[in-house]
Amino acid sequence: MSRSDDPLVGTGFRDRSRAQLGQPFLRQAIPRATDHTIAALHDRFADVDVAALRERGRRIRAETIRDLDAHLETLVAAFERNGITVHRAADAEAARGRIRSICSAAGARRVVKVKSMATEEIRLNPALAADGLEVVETDLGEYVVHLDDDRPSHIIAPIIHKTRQEVRQSLSRVAGRELPDDTAELTGFARGQLRDAFLSADVGISGANFGVAESGTVVLLTNEGNGRMCTSLPRVHIALMGIERVLPTLDDLAVMLPLLAGSGTGQLLTSYVSMISGPRREGEPDGPEEMHVVLLDNGRRALLGGPFEEALHCIRCGACQNVCPVYRQVGGHAYGWVYGGPIGAVLTPLFRGFDDGGELPQASTLCGACDDICPVKIPLHDLLLKLRRVGGGRAATRRERAAATFWAFLWSSGVGYRASIAVGRLGLTLARVLPARLRRGPVLARWAAGRGLPGRGGRP
Ligand code: SF4
Question: Domain containing 160: what range?
Fold first, then answer.
């Protein structure tokens, strides 16, 4: 994909995050929504040996990716046995081309879609619209994003950045009248619109949370039921699947389902788990006449066997975004591409190159919260550090580089370390005593304007 395909890329992280920081709603909404998910995750897994489950998840992903080609071969053979047509796409353009030609061959006029970050990654919707197709996103959040010509800002919660009033305005535009400020009415209106779309669509397009090699099954996890409608009502179903989303066996899937649902939404299982193993067979009452899977590379294969291979273990649960102190302030759009938070800071430079994403690895405090929550134990902060080295710290200003050099010098000796801690402690004590004056002070005014000072014991 070229840079010109993507309107978000082209401005820097600093500018984008400054713009996001200017939206007070965002900085309240993200912690509110993500804290709820994190609390639900801890609740749901209270009686589960999470450490053992995560370790199983890590092992499954590591072993699968290490032998990716063999598992893909098994998967493709199983898909084909099940009557699924498989296409391989080396990059975004090839994937778009495949999907466009399938739609064209089907004589499609209307397409319904299930939420899929892979289709966001390849910028599928504008390409289909350019072919004159009507594209309807059917996940409620994605539907609103699409109406507003916006982009999702979180892997799992695409409209975490929108207020209910904004959603009401978007839906009112479609209705041609002011809809009431009532969640049930708003969702009821959207449901009516989407029901018509499901019934009249020619093609349904989804992603694939996983593809199970032993059975040739595309697995889709949703909470709204739209996935089933999209994949069973239209005549043709196309699933776009990143090549890394393969799982060898159904037993592996049984480990991944609670890990993904728990980490993503705090559920033990999502409301709907669709396991699709081919088009409608004779005697079956529903399902598409044709099913296609497009296997997307788009930079993934290049990571195999290299220092960033672990990035391919990601199952896109979004948990690292939820806990990241940087993401929680600036939101997903600041990252400039499809994926936000720590995994976005890793994937964007790897998939798009350092010209587009080279500064993102700097957008981390390296606190390690993402490592601690990742259900498949990806060492995100290690990957970020490696990327900083590879990218040559290109986002840092000269002043920041000088400060980091001085800091490294200071902390490389016991005396320097103790001296800096003493100075820090003194600074915090002063800040607690004179917070108002500190905020007005010339040196830390900008820094303090967006931050709360820790109280005694380090609590905010
Ligand atoms: S890196 Fe880990 S926590 Fe982040 S989205 Fe991927 S699987 Fe989830």
Answer: 3-296
Distance CA(156)–CA(151), nearest Å, equals: 13
3 vs 363, residue with greater confidence: 363
Location of structure tokens 């910028």: 123
Helix (H, G, I), strand (E, B) or coil at 280: coil
Higher pLDDT: 32 or 299? It is: 299
Q: How far is the CA of 370 from the centre of ligand 1 (A)?
A: 8
Residue 405 lies in a domain: no
Last residue of a domain, one of 243, 275, 296: 296
Q: What is the pLDDT of residue 460?
A: 43
Q: Which residues contact 364 (CB under 8 A, 6 or more apart)?
A: 324, 326, 342, 345, 381, 384
Q: Is residue 339 part of a domain?
A: no
For residue 41, what is the domain's CATH number?
Answer: 3.40.50.10420
Average pLDDT across the chain, whole number: 90
Cβ atoms of residues 181 and 189 within 8 Å: no
pTM for the predicted model, two decimal places: 0.87
**Residue 275 CA, ligand 1 centroid: distance in Å:** 22
Token pair recorded at residue 437: 């004056």
Evaluate if residue 304 carries a pLDDT over 50.
yes
- Which of the listed residues 121, 256, 320, 348 should we mutate to test ligand 1's pocket, taking the one with most ligand atoms within 8 A of CB? 320
Query: Is 207 touching ligand 1 by the criterion CB < 6 Å?
Result: no
419 and 292 assigned to the same domain = no
- Does ligand 1 lie within 6 Å of residue 41's CB atom? no
Any ligand 1 atom below 6 A from CB of 311 = no
Of all protein residues, whose CA lies closest to atom 6 belonging to ligand 1? 314
Q: Which residue has the higher pLDDT, 350 or 456?
A: 350
433 with 285, same domain? no
Q: How many domains does the chain have?
A: 2
